[in-house]
């Protein structure tokens, strides 16, 4: 066994970043950042130049996602993890139901379970490598799941749960559909009208940096947050909504092309460039086709080559943005990953919590399909030579 192996230059991908987040940032994004920095970085985020970029990001997202009438885009610091707490503070009225099928779906459910002012959430759980949507449940005012479970590479459908169009018994309004799009947004098809809240951080398909969240909000979601926050103001003993977790404050800032507190301006430049790149190339139809092509390369390889197989058994649920591949137990995947890293190919390890002999390959829009092919050839080369 060897830990030192040089992969022939001609086999290597042009870019070796295949992480599931943070993910590859394109060269053109960096060129724009280095060209624009002097008029933007180190200047006020409350003045026209930066506000102009925030406005451009919102317009670009509206175009990319074909934002339905009445929906609005909010943003704030803290990433999707912060948004989970915000959703508990401002969107879940009393009780939520969750589809739980991996680490990220579980983390949001845990947030709700730990919020002292919410009732115990109803959890619909399925084994890793599968998904389950929450079922219609009495007294539930928010249904939550993830479009793409990044820890396992499972894609779940996004559609309103049957039977929820009318208000549940005892509730003044119908339940909200709150979907985590963090590793799907920009890579996997979505009909935003099937959600009330679709949120994500941009360090996955948007090839930017983390630390910020974006959310597309339906009129019902905006109304829900406003009602909950108003009620909390009157009765602070029941529920405390800190400013940082106020969705209404985030939205009001977004309407003025700002954020509640100071954002990373460099990240806005990266994000804006990526959105324009996606839209200029043909929008979501183009990027989803590109990701599905890259994902197929990985899954076809995994079905063809004897020492690997797709982790997700149901082909329909295999993610088109994060492909998870089990490696035969006879082969130590950590050794493959170590050799790949020495050769400049990084971040293809499985999710740490899953503890499997697994490769996990981010095939977001920024990743060139031909680089995915090169990666697979490199893995074959390493396995043949180690
Ligand atoms: C990465 C990820 C998160 C966490 O995002 P942060 O920006 O690190 O908070 C949440 N949900 C999903 C599905 C993710 O892939």
Automatic annotation (TrEMBL):
Enzyme class: transferase
Pfam families assigned to the protein according to its UniProt record, in alphabetical order: Aminotran_5
Gene Ontology molecular function, alphabetical: alanine-glyoxylate transaminase activity; L-serine-pyruvate transaminase activity; O-phospho-L-serine:2-oxoglutarate aminotransferase activity
Record EC number: 2.6.1.52
An example Gene Ontology biological process: L-serine biosynthetic process
Cofactor section: pyridoxal 5'-phosphate
Catalytic activities: 4-(phosphooxy)-L-threonine + 2-oxoglutarate = (R)-3-hydroxy-2-oxo-4-phosphooxybutanoate + L-glutamate; O-phospho-L-serine + 2-oxoglutarate = 3-phosphooxypyruvate + L-glutamate
PANTHER family: ALANINE--GLYOXYLATE AMINOTRANSFERASE (PTHR21152:SF40), AMINOTRANSFERASE CLASS V (PTHR21152)
Entry protein name: phosphoserine transaminase
Organism whose genome encodes this protein: Bifidobacterium aquikefiricola
High-level lineage: Bacteria, Bacillati, Actinomycetota, Actinomycetes, Bifidobacteriales
